[in-house]
Amino acid sequence: MPSAATISDEEISRLASLPRKPLTLADLVGHGKPPLSNDALLSSANFTLSLLPARLAHRIQKLRNLPFIVVANPNINRIYNNYLHSLSILEPFYQSKIVSMEEEVRFTEAMAELVQTHTNTIPILAQGFLECRKYITPADITRFLDQHLRARIGTRLIAEQHLALHMASAPETAEHELDMHNIGVIDTSLQPAKIIRSCEAFVGDICELKYGVRPRIDMNGSVKAMFAHIPVHLEYILTELIKNAFRATIESGNETHPIEVTFAAAPDVPLSKLDALKRLSVTDESVLDFSQEGLIEYCSSSEGLGGPLNSSAPSITIRIRDRGGGIPPEVLPNIWSYSFTTFNAEQATNANSASDGLQAITNGGNPSSIAGLGYGLPLSRAYAEYFGGSIAVQSMYGWGTDVYLSLQGIAKVV
């Protein structure tokens, strides 16, 4: 665990009081396609540095606002110290602008350390809140985690985007190693159907190991549709939704009925650059702690996307339909609550055992200790909603469930 940080309470309070600028997919591609020039890399570093300190300080304040007995829990206290540590390693950089490539290299090393430090935040918090469930209500847990994990999405994206741009722009990176469709962590030609097939294979293997059968997926609609989005987010969401559909289908005895996946690409709708970016931004300040501040200035600036934004912000909706018997009425109101699970405490604790491999599918297909703890669906919704998407569930108890995943992309960079 990182050592205790030395950053002062006054500095934390100052940073936490600063406005937190909205993050859009447009911002993440705003420095152009790699390899970037030195000036563009410096711009990316300073953009990253302009966003992270206030966000980290704000999360520290929110952790401090939890009941003392909760913050004193070793797991939650570890996360608190991780945030203190990350803010302290940024302090030498945000005091002044990064102006040299030597500084940019040191800053990038700090970003790599920050990302590594917070890799296991979700399972650690999950375990901490499981241990503290006597001292904090499920509603308060959900309220805190909904804000905290959504804020973590943005913080991690900001850091990982600069890391990806730096690595893709390194002199030793051969031209053939660059994916011309990628701008950092964003794939500008992402095809959801391919990710569906990858998730189907992975979840199907687990099902076959546990149950001896594997459902199949039939795809229809705009199967070849592409848009610009973040692959790891889509992989996490689709793995969770397919896992739920497969499990319900098998346990209801309907594994011979395929899961039906339908793709619908929204038609292009003419939008101004400002309207397009607003659609791609987090807007509910009361829930997500972000605002629209800065968008008008952004759209009127000469910087932007390194090229004009076209007139549409494409979106894709994916419907996953199963014959798994639906969701019981007494369960349905709780499906978006963190820490709600249909497993008992012993099952949740043992969800990573080989016999419960299907429940261990979390975190983009990698097993972790949040399996069985009820984080999968609400966290998937957090990923979907971060850039203006949504997840909606319609259940016919006794028959099956339809899940609608809608995602906003970004207009092309030309």
TrEMBL record:
Keywords, sorted A to Z: ATP-binding, Kinase, Mitochondrion, Nucleotide-binding, Phosphoprotein, Transferase, Transit peptide
Gene Ontology annotations of biological process type: regulation of glucose metabolic process
Compartments in which it is found: Mitochondrion matrix
PROSITE patterns cross-referenced by the UniProt entry: HIS_KIN
One example GO MF annotation: ATP binding
Keyword Glycoprotein annotated: no
Protein family membership: Belongs to the PDK/BCKDK protein kinase family.
PANTHER family noted in UniProt: [3-METHYL-2-OXOBUTANOATE DEHYDROGENASE [LIPOAMIDE]] KINASE, MITOCHONDRIAL (PTHR11947:SF20), PYRUVATE DEHYDROGENASE KINASE (PTHR11947)
Name the UniProt record assigns to this protein: Protein-serine/threonine kinase
Source species of the chain: Lithohypha guttulata
